[in-house]
Write a structure and sequence with these properties.
Helix content of chain B: 40-55%
Largest interface: A-B, 71 and 69 residues
Largest sheet of chain B: 8 strands, mixed
Number of helices of chain B: 15
Distance between the termini of chain A: 16 Å
Order of helices and strands of chain B: HHHHHEEEHEHEHHEHHEEEHEEHEHEH
Distance between the termini of chain B: 76 Å
Structural class of chain B: alpha/beta
Largest sheet of chain A: none
Shape of chain B: globular
Oligomer: heterodimer
Mean pLDDT of chain A: 88
Low-confidence stretches of chain B: 1-5, 54-63
Number of strands of chain B: 13
Helix content of chain A: over 70%
Structural class of chain A: mainly alpha
Number of helices of chain A: 20
Low-confidence stretches of chain A: none
Radius of gyration of chain A: 23 Å
């Protein structure tokens, strides 16, 4: 169930909040209520798969308990089984068609693959579940005796759909004890509204534009090829779309969690201001890349001395898996490989540590990331190839496009706002205001900012009511 | 810890916003829930009583079922979607936009709305449409003629002043060209209204700014031309002395600002503006028996004004609810038989037509002994084979360029497949 829906905003959220605060006398009861609400919201969105989620909760709860009590030798076996089952469910739902495609290359008769609708949030809660089991295995955290804790950790509705990922240790501490704070609640409300505005007014509007252009690219071979300027415009709006959809979603998740007394980690830090691809991935979907670093890259590197060969191997595996995590086809392998090559290059040449030629490095980073986004969005290797050819103007396509000018004219306000706020402009303004001694300026900002956001929130509601939203998913 | 510091740092800002947010949020809840609550509770009751909510694990089960039902109930039953339409239109207008709803509708320099079409691709089924009409013609008795009438396109290349770069639907007009050509090669008689005196009418006379259909005046002119063509080509005595076609035999009433067409209803009146609606009705004596196929056996008898005009369509509390174009024949889904009691021996006409031909059908009624009109897909519409059991002097298939689609020709094709 999207947060940017009337059902969530006007029906579920008020009910869940009201009962949550009615149960203020018992944190345990609040946890049970949040788990029930999370499962219900999940079931209402994708009804069949609530059972899969419940199964995952029970499985990981039991395995962690067994692991904690098991002898060191059988601990490892239990962890292996737990991880295999978690990945097995993910593979069955997400990667079966791709595996069938690979099998088709080597087998004379193509295997029959059933069509399975990907359960929402499966990619995220599987990572959370594996992280939980590994933390217990390593002794970094204690296994939960109460399945409600594991259930809430995996299914907590603000974060189940698209993160941010949070470690079991951080989540468990907050589940055990948290206190009501008006400051936190109000900050949560502010953050949620900010996320909604980003998602609805920027992300979704850019998505509509990007969809039109990328669909044109896919259909181009039957009609007129995508002109160069329109192809670049499409790529720009897709870059903005994906940022505002995801960071807006994260803001909503963090805001909602704060309303229930939880702190979730930040997930985006102005990634388009990065000066290297390595830096970009440290600012983009931070908790996802941190998960891969913590639970895959570091264990593979081991404690011994590392050499360049091992680094290359580890980076290749990590980026192939990050690519596949984003989608289950060959294009996503290329997506991972593209970033692997760039990060490897930066690693060996020390590019990501250099402070020279900042603007040139920003342009390089942006172009490299944009190229990666073509792989993510074009819809296949063939379409990716066509898009690159259209960008370069070597596909018998025109250079100028009056459609691009129209799209720019019609959405000028949002595009300018989108570009500005994808960079730390807001932060700079705030620093400027805070560094002045003028109380009047600070007070004016404290009044104008909420008023502006409230106005934008109302505009977002009107857009939501008119159904002018995209149904974009990242994973 | 850091985030807690941030919470406190912006405390005043956050508290002020929370108060504003609560006010907006609670107002929305108060507006939406009373209307939607009964439906929402019903959906939840149905979902929870069915074991499927949590227990079924069906990979092929369509996702988002409960959510979709709830969201639809929240948006539509609550009424807030309709209430906010004009606010949305105001926002679009404030941004000086010429398009709305992701290029679904585009406004030209003169304020006429057009349908948008990002991917202008030819209709690959045009040859099939022509063949279906040829098969229909082959099934008709020799004395029954088949005439295809193509109405005028809203967008005319080189004439319609659209801002450069806007993806206005140009393809419908091109598809109509291709269809006329295909019909010609299949030996079907055609009347292309683009090449009649209607081409000299101004756009204001031909089309509403806010509606995809033509004006009543255009429909009346099309009726005049059609009668003339039927008389000349097939020697049908529809209006030998020209009195029925004479404009002086009709009263024209204008209702300023009353028309918010189908496109305007979607975009909102603030974005599209409104049109004046003109009602043309005969002031000579008329008498009809009218029977709707959806309510067989219930025959209404009376004059043009009593049985073919539905003035109730001109009376509604809001522009969104008004349907002035339905003043003729009373509905956008038409399946009805009109018998002219004053001309029992006149020609019999079967009109398979798009809704925009409803006024044409009404104007034809005094000239014929029987006119039956069916809009393909209308509820209660009889199968074409059943209609063809009757004797007709002429079968007219009439459609504007935007309506020439597989859905439309499915109806005419049905008879040849039996």
């Amino acid at each position: 169930m999207p947060f940017s829906s009337m059902t969530f905003l006007l029906l579920f959220l008020p009910c869940v909040l009201l009962l949550y605060y009615l149960f203020s006398f018992s944190t345990q009861l609040q946890n049970v209520w949040l788990l029930a609400a999370s499962l219900f919201i999940y079931a209402a969105g994708q009804k069949g798969y609530a059972l899969l989620l419940t199964g995952s909760i029970l499985w990981n709860w039991l395995m962690a308990l067994f692991m904690e009590r098991a002898a060191p030798r059988s601990k490892k076996a239990l962890l292996t089984v737990a991880v295999i089952v978690n990945l097995g469910a993910l593979a069955a739902c997400k990667y079966l068609p791709f595996l069938g495609e690979i099998a088709d290359l080597f087998m004379s008769t193509a295997p029959v693959i059933p069509h399975i609708v990907l359960p929402v949030g499966l990619s995220f809660y599987t990572l959370q579940a594996i992280g939980y089991c590994v933390d217990v295995y390593r002794g970094d955290a204690k296994a939960a005796r109460n399945p409600v804790y594991v259930g809430l950790h995996l299914s907590f509705f603000p974060k189940i759909i698209a993160g941010p990922l949070i470690s079991w240790g951080d989540m468990a501490a907050q589940m055990r004890s948290r206190k009501f704070q008006a400051a936190r609640l109000s900050a949560g409300v502010y953050r949620f509204a900010l996320g909604l505005v980003k998602k609805v007014l920027l992300g979704s509007q850019f998505a509509l534009l990007a969809d039109n252009i990328f669909n044109w690219n896919s259909m181009g071979r039957f009609q007129v090829e995508l002109p160069v300027t329109l192809a670049w415009f499409g790529l720009l709006v897709f870059a903005l779309q994906i940022y505002y959809e995801l960071s807006g979603f994260t803001d909503m998740a963090i805001g909602l969690a704060a309303m229930f007394g939880f702190d979730l980690p930040e997930n985006f830090d102005y990634p388009y201001a990065a000066t290297s691809v390595t830096g970009f991935w440290r600012r983009w979907n931070i908790t996802l890349t941190a998960w891969f670093r913590q639970y895959l890259y570091r264990p593979m590197s081991g404690r011994g001395a590392s050499n360049n060969d091992i680094t290359v191997r580890n980076l290749l595996v990590v980026w192939a898996l990050i690519g596949l995590w984003h989608g289950s086809d060959w294009t996503m392998l290329f997506f991972g490989a593209w970033f692997f090559v760039l990060i490897l290059m930066e690693h060996f040449f020390g590019l990501h540590e250099s402070d020279r030629m900042i603007w040139l490095r920003r342009i390089y980073t942006l172009l490299a990331v944009l190229a990666g986004w073509v792989l993510l969005r074009a819809g296949g290797l063939y379409e990716t190839g066509r898009y690159f050819m259209n960008l370069a103007g070597v596909n018998n396509n025109a250079f100028l496009s009056d459609v691009a000018l129209v799209l720019l004219r019609e959405n000028f306000l949002w595009i300018v706002a989108g570009i500005l706020f994808s960079l730390p402009v807001g932060q700079s303004i705030e620093h400027f205001v805070q560094s002045r001694d003028s109380t009047l300026l600070k007070t004016a900002c404290n009044i104008l900012q909420p008023l502006l956001l409230c106005g934008l929130f109302i505009v977002s509601i009107i857009y939501m009511l008119q159904g002018n939203l995209s149904t974009f998913t990242y994973f | 810890m850091e985030s807690r510091v941030i919470f406190l740092k912006h405390l005043h800002r956050n508290l002020l916003f929370s108060a504003l947010f609560a006010a907006v949020w609670l107002s929305l809840i108060a507006m939406a829930t009373p209307g939607a609550l009964p439906g929402v509770l019903q959906i939840l009751r149905d979902s929870l009583s069915a074991p499927g909510l949590f227990l079924s694990l069906s990979p092929t089960h369509p996702p988002d079922e409960v959510y979709d039902a709830l969201e639809s109930e929240m948006l539509h039953a609550s009424g807030i979607r309709n209430d906010s339409k004009e606010l949305f239109a105001a926002l679009q207008t404030a941004q000086q936009k010429n398009e709305t709803r992701n290029y679904l509708y585009i406004k030209d320099r003169d304020g006429f709305l057009h349908k948008g079409n990002f991917y202008q691709s030819p209709d690959g089924l045009i040859a099939n449409y022509a063949k279906s009409l040829r098969r229909l013609q082959e099934q008709l008795p020799d004395e029954t003629r088949l005439l295809f009438v193509g109405a005028l396109p809203r967008y005319v290349e080189g004439e319609t002043s659209v801002y450069s770069g806007y993806p206005v639907d140009r393809q419908s007009a091109r598809n109509m060209d291709a269809l006329q050509l295909a019909l010609f090669s299949n030996g079907i008689d055609t009347l292309d209204l683009r090449y009649t005196r209607m081409s000299r009418m101004s756009r204001e006379e031909l089309f509403y700014r806010t509606d995809s259909k033509w004006t009543t005046q255009a429909a009346f002119t099309a009726f005049q031309i059609l009668v003339g063509e039927l008389e000349t080509r097939y020697d049908l005595r529809l209006d030998p002395d020209g009195t029925i076609r004479d404009p002086s035999g009709y009263t024209r009433s204008i209702f300023p600002g009353l028309m918010l067409g189908d496109m305007g209803k979607s975009t909102g009146a603030i974005f599209s503006g409104t049109d004046d609606f003109s009602l043309i009705e005969p002031n000579f004596e008329t008498a009809f028996d009218v029977e709707s196929y959806s309510r067989p056996g219930r025959v209404s008898s009376g004059s043009f004004q009593e049985v073919l005009l539905f003035e109730s369509a001109l009376n509604a509390p809001t522009l969104q609810e008004l349907k002035p174009f339905s003043a003729y024949l009373g509905s956008s889904q038409i399946a009805m038989r009109i018998d002219n009691r004053l001309n029992r021996d006149g020609p019999r006409i079967l009109l398979i037509g798009d809704t925009s031909f409803a006024p044409v059908c009404a104007f034809l009624a005094p000239a014929a002994s029987r006119v039956t009109m069916v809009t393909p897909g209308a509820s209660g519409a009889p199968p074409l084979s059943q209609l063809l059991e009757e004797t007709w002097d002429v079968v007219i298939v009439a459609v504007p360029p935007s309506g020439a689609s597989a859905d439309f020709f499915q109806y005419t094709d049905s008879v040849s497949k039996q």
